[in-house]
Amino acid sequence: MTEVLEDGDIYFLYRPRVADERVESLTEVQRLLVVLRPWRGRRQLRLLVVGRKRLPDVEEHDRFWAFVAAVARRPQQLHEALEPREYATRTRGARRQEAARPVAEGAYVLARHTDHTHLAYQLELPRRPGPPQHDLQIEPEASHIVTVKNPRAPSPPGVGLREADRARLPAELQQRFGDRRFAPLDPPAFLDQPGVELVLIGAAHDASTELDVDLDAEVERAARDTVFEELRIGRAERPTEPLFAGQWR
Questions:
Q1: Which of 82, 176, 211, 218 could form an S-S bond across to 100 if both were Cys, CB 3.0 to 4.6 Å?
Q2: How many Cβ atoms from other residues are within 10 Å of residue 88's Cβ?
């Protein structure tokens, strides 16, 4: 039994390492970013950071940590998180990190499947995935089991956010955990809380069959005035080759 809890547009971006202007492989990538924009309800944009700078391998059923870095009502409010950064250091002087670069977009669903929840997506762009999508493990279609970590539960040393950076959940969401360390991503309102920590587990390539969800129809419904187009207004310096040509830049 599958119940769709939420659907919307999904966008993938990567941020180059500090001082790397050109990216030619995963080595020059610092972070993989994911933006979710629901089609219904409050329609807030959620910016997620994936800890291993790539999605979990579906074949290996990898388990990767992620967290909600920011929540915004309009694309323009994500500029600060995605634009170039310049700062001074004691030993190396001025340092610059290039803007986040779009690498894929499509449609997603959050679905309840028996006793767990899935994040499933299908890409619309690029038409022909290439090295960036392969290295970042962004499949043309995939499903990942997703769980939410109880922010009041301790984390192993060196794993996850600092206690001060974890979400302070409303009572109705905190109660979903009971005495558990993890809970399904149900309701999706967990994603509206900055500092929420997640675990993504690679589940399946053929998400449509696994969940009995028509992802082709979801992609057809995807908005044509995309977040990427809005973010690129007046910002011609942001490379688009990864998104349209499937090439590193």
A1: 82
A2: 8
Q: How far apart are CA 117 and CA 135, in angstroms?
A: 26
Strand partners, 63: 201
The answer to whether residue 247 is domain-embedded is no
Query: How many Cβ atoms are within 10 Å of 41's Cβ, its own excluded?
Result: 12
In this structure, is residue 248 part of a structural domain? no
Residue-wise pLDDT for 16-72, tens only, equals: 998 788 899 999 999 999 999 998 887 799 999 999 999 999 999 999 999 999 999
Asked, for residue 68, whether it belongs to a domain, the answer is yes
Read off the pLDDT of residues 147-204 as tens digits, 9 standing for 90 and up. 999 999 988 887 889 999 999 999 999 999 999 999 999 999 999 999 999 999 999 9
Are 123 and 106 in contact by the 8 Å Cβ rule? The answer is: yes
Q: For residue 195, is it left (φ>0), alpha (ψ between -120 and 50) or beta? A: left
Domain range for 197 is: 2-235
Number of domains composing the chain = 1
Inside any domain, residue 122: yes
